[in-house]
Every structure is written in C-alpha cells, then in structure tokens.
Design a protein that fits this description.
The complex is a heterotrimer of chains A (295), B (267) and C (312).
Chain A: H1 2-33, H2 40-60, H3 69-78, H4 82-89, H5 99-121, E1 137-140, E2 143-146, H6 147-169, H7 171-181, H8 183-188, H9 193-215, H10 225-240, H11 245-265, H12 270-284
Antiparallel strand pairs in A: 1-2
Helix pairs in contact in A: 1-6, 1-7, 1-9, 1-10, 1-11, 2-3, 2-5, 2-9, 2-10, 3-9, 4-9, 6-7, 10-11, 10-12, 11-12
Chain B: E1 5-16, E2 19-30, E3 34-38, H1 45-52, E4 60-65, E5 68-69, H2 75-81, E6 83-86, H3 98-109, H4 124-136, H5 152-164, E7 170-174, H6 182-198, E8 203-207, H7 211-217, E9 220-225, E10 228-233, H8 235-240, H9 242-249
Parallel strand pairs in B: 3-8, 3-9, 6-7, 7-8
Antiparallel strand pairs in B: 1-2, 1-4, 4-5, 9-10
Helix pairs in contact in B: 3-4, 3-5, 5-6
Chain C: H1 2-20, H2 23-48, H3 57-72, H4 78-100, H5 105-125, H6 127-130, E1 136-137, H7 153-180, H8 183-193, H9 195-200, H10 205-231, E2 233-234, H11 241-254, H12 261-277, H13 283-297, H14 303-306
Antiparallel strand pairs in C: 1-2
Helix pairs in contact in C: 1-7, 2-7, 2-10, 2-11, 2-12, 3-4, 3-5, 3-10, 4-10, 8-10, 11-12, 12-13
Classes of the chains: A mainly alpha (295), B alpha/beta (267), C mainly alpha (312).
Chain lengths: 295, 267, 312
C-alpha cells in the first residue's frame, strides 16, 4: 500500500521536476518581458527530439551507453540557443505591441515549430529505448523507482537552487528582478534592456529544451508533446502565480502530483481536475499563490 | 443661497490600509451652484472625486444623491441617477468619431444600449441628440473625425461634451482646463457655462488648479488639505482665509482679485 | 457604394459557384461557410469588443456534437440541429461568459483557454458518451424536411447542402450586420476603446461584454453544427486550444477591424491550407510564417490593404 503511494508520489514528483524546468522558463520570460510564451512547449518538444538524436549519435559513435545522460543534457542545454535566434529574429519586433499580438506571435511559433519538428524527425515517436533503466532502480519505502528519475529530480532541484541563487545573489539576477518590477526605471538606470531580453529569453528557452531532453528516456518524443505540455505549464503558472519562480516550483509540484494521483485513481479526470483548479484559481485568486500585484 | 443638496457627502473617510486619504470630508452641492474643489496634490481630491462618482466605496460616511444612497454604486448607476463626470487625463475612444463618441451617452440616456436590431444611423432621436451637443461644444464640423486625430483642446472638449450628453443634473469636471493653453482655457469655460445653461444642468463641481478659473467662475470654493476640508466658502471669504492662501500658493503670491460679475452667477 | 457592389458580386458569385467549380473545390466551400458563420460571431467579441478568446472552439465543439447526438437520436432535421446548437451554445456561453467577462486581456484569454480544454478533456475522456478520440458520426441531415438519403453523397453536399449553408451564412451575416450597426454595437466599440470612459458614460461594461460573448457563442455553435455533416464525423480536436488559436488567426488574417475581414480570413485560410497540403503536408509551417508576418508587418490583415482600418 505504501509502495503504491510512494510510486504515485515519486512519479508525480518526476513529472513535476520536468514541468518545473519548462515553467521556470515561462515565468522568467513573462516576468521580464511580460510575454506569455505559448511556444515554450514547442521548445520542450525540440529539446526532446534533439536529445534523442544526440543520444543516438553518441551511442552510434561508440560512446559508452552509461554516459548517455551527458549528451542528452548537453544537447538539451545547447539547443536552447535557438531561443536567441527567435528573440532577435522575431520577438523583438513586437515588444511595443498589444499583448494580444505578442501572444499570437508565439502561437505562430507553435505552428511553425510543430511542423519543423515533423519535417526533421517525421511523425513516428522517437525514443532512447532501453537506456532508461541503465542506471538501475532503487527501493524507496517499498516502491521501485528508476534511478534515472531520481537523477532528474535531483538535477531539477539543483537547477531550482541555482536559479534562486542567480536571482538573489548575482548582478544579472538583480537586473532581472528590477526589469520585472519596473522596466522603465531599470532602463532609466542604464540597464541594456535589449541585452537583458535576449539573455532572459535564451535562458528561458534553454530551461524548456533541457526539460524536454531529460524527460525523453522515461517517455517518447511525440509530435503533440509540445502543444500538450503548454497547457500543463499554463496550469502551473496560473496556480503558482504569473512571473513567480517559487510559484513555478510549487505549481509544478501541485500539477505533477495531482496528475499522477488522478491517473492512478480515476484516469478520466486526469487533466480535467487540473483545468478545474486553474479555473478556480483564476476566479478566486487570479494572482495565484505567489503572483505579484502586477499580474 | 440655501438649497436642497442634490449631492451630499457626509463625514466621508477613505483608508488605504493605514493611509488616510480622506478624513471626514463633508460636502453638499445644491441647484444653481458652481463649486470648485482646490488643494495641493495628495490632498485627496482624486479620491474624493472617485468617491463622489461612485467608483470608490468610502470606508466610512455617506454619499447621497437626491436622497438616494450613492456610496460605491458605480459610475453606471450614478449616470442613471443624474451625475456625470469628465476626466483629468483626457479619456476618449480613439477609434470612434466625434459624433460616435457623443452617440454613446445619448444611447445610454435613452436606454437604447440593448437595442440589437435597431439601426443606429436611422435613429433620429439619438442622432439629433448627439448633434445638438456637438454644436453646443463647437465640434459639429469635426463630427466625422476620429477622436484620436483631434488636437488636445478638442479632445478635452469632447471628453466634457460626452459627459454633458448624458444630460446630468450635476456634472463633475476633473481639471477641465488642464493640458490646454491659457487662451483655450477661457474658451472652454465659456462653452461649459453656456452648455450647462442650455442643457438644464443644475450644478457644476470642478477640481481645478488654475486660480483664475476658480475665482472667475465659482460660487463656492472647497479647499482640501491632507484629506480634510480646510475651508468651504465663497471666493471672497476664501481669499481672506490665510490658511487657504498658505496651503494653496504660499505666502508670496496673492489669490486673484475678483473679475467683473463674479458674484451671483445665473444658471 | 463600392462596398455594396463588391458584396453583391460576392453573393452572386457564391450562388453560381456550384456551376463553375469542381466538386473538390465546392466541398472546400462548405467548411469555409461554416467558419464564416463562426468568425462573424468571434469578431463581435474580438474586433468590436476587444476580447481575445483562446477557447472559442468550445462552442464550435458544442455545435458539432449537437449534430452528432441529435442525428444519433433520430432527429435529423438540420433546422432542429441548428436551433438546438444555438440554444446550447447560448446556455454554455452564458455560463462560461458569466465567469470570464469580469476579466480582461491575458486573464480572459487564460480562462477561456481553460474552459475550452475542460470541454476537450470531457469529449476525449468520457468516451462511452462521446466516442473518445475517434469522435462521433454525424448522419446526413434532412434539409427543410426533405430526406435526401437517396442522393449520392457528393451530389448532396455540393448541391442542396451547399445552398443550405450559404443561406445560413447570408442570414448570419445579415443578423450580425444589424447588431454591429445598432446602438448596442456602438456601445461594444466604446468598451473596446476605453472601458473606463464607457462606464462613465453609462455603459455597463461587464454586462455588455457578456451579451457579446453569448452572441458569439451562438454563432460559433451554429457554425459548428454545419461542420459535421460534410465529413460525417466530429471529434474532440474541434475543441482543442490550437483550434481556438486558428480561429483568432483567421480573424487576424482577414482583418479584424472590418466586418467581412474575418470571413475573408476563413476563406483564405481554408483554401490556402488546401493548396499547401496538396504540395507538402507542412501547412502549419507556412501558416505560422504567415501569422508571424501579419503580426509584425500587417496587423490590419488583408482588409487592411483594401480599406481604411475602421469597422463598417
């Protein structure tokens, strides 16, 4: 019985770990640039596919399968640089526009990336079959958990801590928080907003692509994964509060664990429960758990 | 000149957390009065306006419009009762023409807002009502110009005109001459006074910083300071009130001397 | 006057199209006309009231599945189906709208998206009722009481069904035209342009937004009901958030500041999608690029090139 509960919980936390990465990216971009990036799910998908390819190339080139997580994570991070291209090449043209247009531009990205991925990798699901259990399994309170999951959870926690550190202790982090709070004042104080925007968006994208890459061994890269994930990430940021990193963490845990519980108890309601919570949050406490007044 | 108060605020207090924006403000405006509210920034004028126009609910105290409770009932309900306002920062409908801007309040006044299938262009009563106001405010020849293309002075006039088009009993003008040149100011005020006479307005309340305008047109001046009414009297009495003079403009200046025909303005 | 001439020509062209176009092209006209009705409603909300809904496909789904349920239950009169869809769309929009119209901009978008996805999940998961991801069949409806089952499918669709849809589109356009040019329509535009000022002039912003939401929901459901019969099948993707996004895309493409812009947008979307698909299956790539170009360079859409960017 406990084993069952632990299983559900750990599965939920694993999903939350991935969700946190993607949502953190979403929150960063929203907090600073006030743009809700619908394409964050697409970047997640991109990271997943690139991750699969990277691992495949690695093992074909003779790399030891045991180290597969290295090319996986590296690919996930590096492909995040596509965010810079997107920001400089597309997004910066709409910074002064109504938020509807900004949202629609990110939707345009969703469309383009969905097909770009299909074009490059085809429609069949891609996976790193077999490598998932390479790190073995651990017994946690009677339940059997893949060690890979624990590694990802640990990595996500580390990244969360790293982001927290960056935001509170580094100059860049201070600039991010200043820009999120009051853009005009930050600019008046000499902050190069163009540079900040470019770096924030790239960082946000990289978090998403990394999330996509890391989830791959546990599942398969599929063409709808992007547009499906965005609604989960959207639920996370609504519950946690738009623009808040703590919100991303807590929201991801809520969504991840609830979804896991729902799947095992009453599969029909899975995402339905989450959406209803989103609606409830939007109606009762629109700024979510940690959202600021600006939200 | 005692009258039944049409709009009356009694002991209004408004708190924002610990901050006291209004501290027991009482104000009564009756028919035939032109009341100016003056005071430095932060005195609570905007808060008072928002309370009087039903946008804010007072923390304590009452606001009554013609004996009906008007505290926090919202701007829409207040327009139905007979109170209209214009805005300090000019508010227009950028993509609507001058005429369309004036059609809206007339539609609201005549209760035609939910007429889904009536032709607006063919509704003579609404069209004539809007045109009449446009002519009163000298905007008739610009009636097909989109509001965002108007010069600033005309935008201000349009903002005020649209409030007038509601044919309210009392109109509350929030700095009606701010942001326009001195030459245009008196023109606007003259139009205002003429229009209110023509349209049967019972009283005007204005918030103003320009003392020439204040002393040139008011029957009564209410001086607000730190959320309290410092003085509420005729212009002559206010001019003699050292506290007000200090508060408003410091000791080195004098309040304007009365222009001709200041007292007993007909309405 | 020029506008009226163009309009008359367009209607005349639509009337004679079955004599000119190939059956394949004519079959494309059917979803176009359905989307035309949907977009007319959506633009009341978007172009005229200034609200961007990312969950409008919810009502399209309601209309579509109404057709499925009714034809399964033996009620095959298209008039009844359309009427039922309108009523259900109105009820759903009234309820959802009640909750959503108190919010604006991104919160409105998020709420509508969430509601849309709730419906999608319901359609997907409660498969015993709705057929799950395979959806439900829609049987050939009776047109004006006439049972045309004997007709070959294509003949039925490019003949009587085509003219039926055209009729619905024309009626829908006429109704929406009246609404937009009524005192109510002007009030909506004041809300779009400056809600604070509108409120100060006596326009109940929230209540009028709600009316606009309900009307647009009705149009979407009616259009949705027309979408079912041509393919004979409805499925949950009709309610998915990307479908809602495509609706907004169509409005933007044609130009949301004009009355017919969104209908034009639906036309271009459907035919361009077909044209692209005949060459490569990657229509989303092309369309995504088009949307990006419109957003950045031509937010007025196609009508922005032809007419001044002002409604009516």
């Amino acid at each position: 019985m406990t084993a069952n509960v632990v299983n559900i919980l750990m599965s939920g936390i694993f999903h939350a770990a991935i969700l946190f990465l993607v949502s953190a990216g979403l929150q960063l971009v929203f907090g600073v640039q006030k743009i809700f990036n619908l394409a964050c799910g697409s970047f997640y998908a991109l990271g997943a596919y690139v991750g699969v390819s990277a691992v495949a190339a690695f093992t074909t080139a003779g790399g030891p399968p045991f180290l597969f997580i290295v090319p996986l994570a590296l690919a996930g991070i590096l492909v995040g640089s596509v965010g810079l291209v997107v920001e400089r090449g597309l997004l910066r043209f709409v910074y002064d526009r109504d938020e509807t247009f900004q949202l629609l531009l990110t939707f345009a990205l969703v469309l383009m990336m969905e097909d770009a991925i299909r074009l490059t990798w085809g429609t069949a699901p891609q996976s790193t079959s077999g490598l998932y259990l390479l790190y073995g399994q651990a017994r946690v309170l009677g339940a059997v958990i893949p060690v890979y999951n624990l590694i990802v959870i640990a990595a996500s926690v580390l990244i969360a801590a790293g982001l927290g550190f960056m935001l509170t202790r580094t100059a860049f982090g201070r600039i991010i928080r200043a820009a999120a709070d009051n853009r005009e004042m930050a600019e008046a104080l000499g902050v190069d907003m163009r540079g900040v925007y470019a770096r924030v968006f790239t960082l946000g994208t990289a978090l998403g692509t990394l999330g996509g890459a890391l989830v791959i061994p546990a599942t398969a890269a599929m063409s709808e994964m992007g547009i499906e994930l965005i609604v989960e990430a959207f639920a996370v940021v609504v519950i946690g509060g738009l623009g808040s990193m703590r919100g991303a963490l807590v929201g991801a845990l809520v969504v991840g664990v609830l979804r896991s519980v729902a799947i095992s108890v009453y599969p029909e309601i899975e995402m339905l429960l989450i959406y209803l919570i989103v609606i409830a949050v939007l109606l009762l406490r629109p700024r979510g758990l940690f959202g600021g007044a600006a939200a | 000149m005692t009258r039944e108060a049409i709009l009356e605020a009694r002991d209004v207090r408004k708190l924002y957390g610990d901050f006291v924006a209004l501290d027991g403000v009482s104000l009564a405006v009756g028919a035939g009065e032109f009341v100016s509210i003056i005071g430095p920034n932060g005195a609570g004028k905007s808060t008072l306006i928002n309370v009087l126009t039903g946008v804010l609910r007072p923390t304590a105290g009452t606001v009554r419009f013609k004996e009906r409770d008007a505290a926090g009932i919202g701007p829409v309900a207040l327009t139905r009762l007979g109170l209209a306002r214009s805005f300090q920062l000019v508010q227009i409908f950028p993509d609507l023409t001058v005429l369309e801007t004036l059609l809206a309040p007339v539609i609201s006044r005549l209760g035609r807002g939910t007429s889904l299938f009536r032709s607006l262009a063919g509704d003579r009563e609404v069209q004539d009502g809007a045109l009449e106001v446009a002519e009163l405010f000298g905007l008739a020849d610009k009636r097909h110009v989109p509001a965002r293309q108007l010069p600033q002075g005309d935008k201000k006039l349009l903002d005020v005109a649209s409030a007038f088009a509601l044919r309210p009993e009392i109109i509350l003008l929030d700095e009606p001459t701010s942001g326009v040149s001195t030459a245009e100011k008196s023109a606007i005020m003259e139009i205002l006074v003429t229009a209110s006479r023509r349209m049967g307005l019972k009283a005007i309340i204005q918030v103003e910083h320009d003392m020439d305008i204040v002393f040139g047109y008011s029957d009564r001046i209410v001086a607000l300071h730190q959320g309290r009414v410092l003085a509420d009297a005729t212009p002559a009495a206010i001019r003699a009130d050292a506290r007000v003079v200090d508060m408003v403009i410091g000791r080195t200046h004098h309040l304007p001397s009365p222009p001709k025909g200041e007292a007993g303005r007909e309405r | 006057m020029k506008g009226r001439v163009v309009l008359a020509l367009a209607v005349a062209a639509l009337l004679v199209l079955p004599l000119l176009l190939s059956p394949y092209r004519l079959l494309l006209m059917l979803p176009f006309m359905a989307y035309g009705v949907i977009l007319l409603g959506l633009n009341l909300l978007f172009g005229y009231t200034g609200l961007v809904s990312f969950g409008h496909a919810l009502f399209v789904g309601i209309g579509a599945y109404t057709g499925a349920f009714l034809t399964h239950a033996g009620i095959r009169s298209l008039e009844v189906i359309v009427l039922a869809a309108a009523v259900l769309g109105a009820v759903a929009a009234a309820l959802v709208g009640l909750l959503c119209v108190r919010y604006v901009k991104i919160y409105f978008g998020m709420l509508t998206l969430a509601f849309g996805m709730v419906f999608y999940t319901f359609l997907l998961k409660f498969y015993r009722l709705t057929g799950g991801d395979e959806g439900m069949q829609v049987l050939r409806p009776l047109l004006l009481g006439l049972n045309l089952d004997a007709m070959p499918k294509t003949t039925y669709l490019v003949g009587p069904y085509y003219y039926y849809c055209l009729g619905v589109l024309v009626v829908a356009a006429a109704v929406m035209w009246r609404i937009v040019h009524s005192p109510f329509g002007l009030c909506l535009r004041t809300i779009r342009d400056n809600p604070v000022k509108a409120e100060a002039l006596g326009v109940s912003v929230t209540r009028y937004r709600w009316y606009a939401f309900v009307i647009s929901g009705v149009f979407a459901a009616v259009g949705g009901a027309l979408l079912g019969p041509p393919t004979g099948n409805v499925d949950p993707t009709l309610a998915y958030w990307t479908h809602s996004g495509s609706l907004v895309f169509m409005a933007l493409l044609g130009g949301f500041a004009s009355f017919f812009g969104p209908v034009l947008g639906a036309f271009v979307f459907i035919f361009l999608q077909d044209a692209v698909m005949s060459v490569v299956p990657y229509w989303r790539l092309v369309f995504g690029a088009i949307l990006a170009i419109i957003v950045i360079f031509a937010p007025g859409g196609l009508m922005g090139f032809f007419a001044r960017p002002r409604p009516s």
